[in-house]
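FORM 7B - TANDEM STRUCTURE REPORT

SECTION 1: FIRST PROTEIN
SEQUENCE AND TOKENS:
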Amino acid sequence: MSTVIRARALRKSYGGKLALDAADFDINAGRIVGLIGPNGAGKTTALKAMLGLVPFEGELSVLGNDPRSQRDALMNDVCFIADVAVLPRWISVEQAASFLEGVHPRFSRERFERFIAGTQLTPKLKVRQMSKGMIVQLHLALVMAIDARLLVLDEPTLGLDILYRKQFYQRLLEDYFDENKTILITTHQVEEIEHILTDVLFIRDGRIVLDASMEDVGQRYVEVLVDSGHADAARALQPIDQRALPFGKTVMLFDGIEQERLRALGETRHPGLADLFVATMKGTYT
């Protein structure tokens, strides 16, 4: 399996404040990776470093290129969707598609039209006539119609209603993703992307605090609903998080403990990615 992105001791500061603090991670080809962290954790800075938009310290290779010195070559194989879509207000849907068709050899008009099918976007509609959600829809369709090896999505569905968000991620799987493409997503809507991810990176204070496949996450982490009679025995196994419930029960989260031992303490389940994220990031805002 080839490595698409390799970062070692990645460091970036703004005015003396570290946005990335010796971050190490690898992203392999044919994976859908969620880069997830609280506000100010370093997500956007990491993406900008990968795209050659900010200087940085350390080692970073993206598709075999150094973003600092080989950005032109890199961007032939990378597409980026930012959290704010910026398109000329005078341009129409048809004109935007024609422009990209003329300047990018990997733009597919057929794929673009598939992506806007079912939306309210019509060929003559201009950006100035669109709602915020419609502008985002147009931007997504334009970028996803480019056959890139790496697709970087920074809060891609911000401003869209839940119906279109679900449709977007489904089309991402059905019409875009294959074993030759890699997708990197940042979002606060963790529950909505959990089912499509193959891997997850949690970032906190500029450091990667979890780097695992979703399969490994499912095997490593277990929540146990513990009653008061088993609480001491459960705490002796050093849960990484716990929260109290009514009637003397406590939910405890364990990492790497044999499930057979945990079943003796109470009802077990695998935590959702959002629950795992909250447990990992406790204390971030204190």
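SECTION 2: SECOND PROTEIN
SEQUENCE AND TOKENS:
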Amino acid sequence: MGRNELINTTRAILAKAGFDVSAALAMRGICFDVVARLDQKVLIIKVLSNIDALSKDNAEEMKALAEALSAVPIVIGERSSSGALEPGIVYSRFNISIVSNETLADLLLEDAPPFIFAAPGGLYVRMDSELLKAVREERGISLGALAETAGVSRRTIQMYEAGMGAMIDAALRIEEYLGLPVIDPIDPFTFRSEDRALEPREVPSLESYALQQLSAMGFSVRPVTKSPFEAVARDGQSMMLTGLSPDDEKVVQRAMVASDISNIMGRFSVIIVEKKHDRDNIDSTAVVSHQELEKMEEPSELTDLVASRGTKK
């Protein structure tokens, strides 16, 4: 299956499951292909025929963007160098969950979540560690007795009860012995934010000025790269996707993409240009010039302007 077909399949599954789904991005150098939202769940999605093509740099940008947008990064793939991705298994690269479209469809459309995750050394499952320990102690089952049943050591049972993943055969033996389900489903839509220092990077004069101006006005500004926008700006009440462009030829393309993404997320988008543009908005993205920005002092001045311009069609 070609990559475009894979992307369209992913988008169709998400849409059928009730997600609002963006168009597939057609811009080079972008770290994701699709944005999808259902209620408060926002997904930043990369679709790859071969998941080995996911680079560390791209993964880090996906995670940084997901943190800025309170979203979840996820990769949809078809195969790796080891072969086709198996249905019902959650893979991982650089702490980003990876599933096949078949697994995605089972989870979202059939309410059949995956129970197995791949990790170095093989395939594993997660057990309800609190339930496992509580039932074992309530029934007076010793660590040794449960370990003998599962075919593992006493120390391993203690590690299961502390939350460590278990080999599938051992977990199934424990479930059969206890007579109750202790294997938990895997949720590929979980993402643990990482405290990473932002890498210093050289920025063009327009971007540097605009981001400094936004910060001086009271916005919390999170620069992002490999994205249709350069930063995510927040104040106490709103969040904006902020793009910057000194090149008029790129304004329309970038603004249209930003509009699609911001509409999916229920956020504002603004593109800041060096000189006053002949349009105040492109689709739902407000266009604001340097001169307008430098006259503003409060965040509300910008958010009100962006809101008024972004509603024009």
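SECTION 3: OBSERVATIONS ON SECOND PROTEIN
Confidence is low (pLDDT under 50) at residues 196-206.
The radius of gyration is 24 Å.

SECTION 4: SIGNATURE
Preparer initials: ____
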